[in-house]
Amino acid sequence: MSDAPESEGPETDRAVSDRLDARPPLLGSWRNLYAVVLLALASYIGLGSLTTWIFAP
Amino acid sequence: MTGLDWFVLVSTITFIAGYGTWANRRVQTATGYLKGEDLRWPTIGLSIMATQASAITFLSVPGQAYEDGMRFVQFYFGLPIAMVIISAVFVPIYYRLNVFTAYEYLEQRFDVRVRVLAAFLFMVGRGLAAGISIYAPAIILSAVLGWGLNTMNLLIGTVVIIYTVTGGAKAVSQTQKQQMMVIMAGLLIAAAVIVSRLPADVSLGQATTLAGALGRMNVIDFSVDPNSRYTVWSGLTGGLFLALSYFGTDQSQVQRYLGGQSVAQSRLGLLFNGVLKIPMQAFILYIGILVFVFYLFEKPPVFFNQAALEQVAHTEHAADLEALEARWDEAFEVRREAAAELAHMDTEPHRAALVAAQDNMDALRSDAKQLIHEALPEVELKDSDYIFVSFVLKYMPSGLVGLLLAVILSAAMSSTSSELNALGSTSVVDGYKRLYKRDLDDDGMVRASKAFTVFWGVLAMSFASFAALLDNLIQAVNILGSIFYGVILGIFLVAFFFKRVGATPTLIGAVAAQAVVLGLFFTSEIGFLWFNLIGCVVLIGVALAVQLLTGSPPSSNSTGAQT
Question: Which of A16, A25, A41 sits opposite B77 (nearest CB)?
Fold first, then answer.
């Protein structure tokens, strides 16, 4: 069994890489999450257009 | 203000500031003090929103909707795109290099000259803005509450300095979370109260129809008319550049997400802001629309700065004002009847009658402003910042007035604390430690940061106190900010995306871009918001050209950008 204590020295490249590449908790990848944010923007513009069309034709 | 209002106001502000001070009194590591440690995404997201939402947001935005409708929301359409770009590009770089300030990265990418230049430009712009963050709400609240301007300045400034100096970035983020909750709760309750105060036979749909008939529901404008300030296109371009420079390179925002537990938490905090900012702004604007509809049935004052009106009543123009107010009363009755008719029968003639009645009232308001200008030339004629706060004081029930004043003061404190915190950190990390005291240890950095935070806080309060002596100061500071922002963003974009461009071409580009922006400022009529885009584009173009012509390799380490 190799239960050697972890080094308390500088963060290893692997650890930095893991920290930077952490997946988002939802949707599998950051790219998907970014797409959702941009879709939200598109839906706001759509909703705004609909509001303008209904109330200020 | 009743006793209950005072109780709600004082206890809310005291609890938030007291808790922030007490809970973070032992934060003494440089990382905890300068960045905040292990923050999770809800705290980061709310902190980012609270930093941007200053008191003037809650004073101005409803008034803006009252006067001009909902279209201002388009100004924020570039923000979600900026959040995605910052999450994907900026955040991993800042984390990989484990920096305290955004400008620290510039030395690793270019050299110390570029770092100090960007930090200096930030401190000039943000240092002045911190004074305005205190002054702008103080001038309005002192007018409506009858308190002295310096008392308001001192109250806001001192409370902020105490908890910001005690707990640093961690205290700022924690208090901002609570301040944002007070702000959101206050706004939701305010909207519910305004709706309940509309006439019983006017539904929310009818209220919105009335606002639409008077041009207040033009949310989206796809036109390419350059004279139209707020369109989808200006939001997606100018708004994107402004949001990129503000959230990506302004230390008062960068510091909010640098203290995240991980890159993922920081990204989620930014994206949280990207999704929620537009609905939040739309909601605040809609509150202004509801106030507008409320005043279709309840007589509004002819000028919303009541203190100025009372002053005119003691001048030789008092009789003219009285006559004008009598005409105003008659015009209001005509408009009220037209609004009631349109609410129950939406026909073209009813719409035309309401529009004509509104035009008549708009003309009388212009006459009133002209009269006030003749009587009191020094009074600011733009009274839209007073619309919401005067409504709150006159029509909100007891207790809620205190809560909404707590909302405004919380917003003032949340943005000011971020600014002072960032100014203190930048002064130490990019100035004092880098240029004079390179062997400064952890304790020394915390002590120096506290001293610089106090220095910037006192400077901001002094500036706020003298601000009243200068004309058009707020606009002057906004222009000053826009003049520098484009250049700072340009430096960062070269650093991130043009890895072959070195320090000297970037510095030459910065000087050229700053000269172009200043030249345009003094010789053209271009709106100052466009300086962000122009400064940025000129800097990138010149830096690329110089790099290409000289062909010299980058003069400093460029590995910082390789992520």
Answer: A41
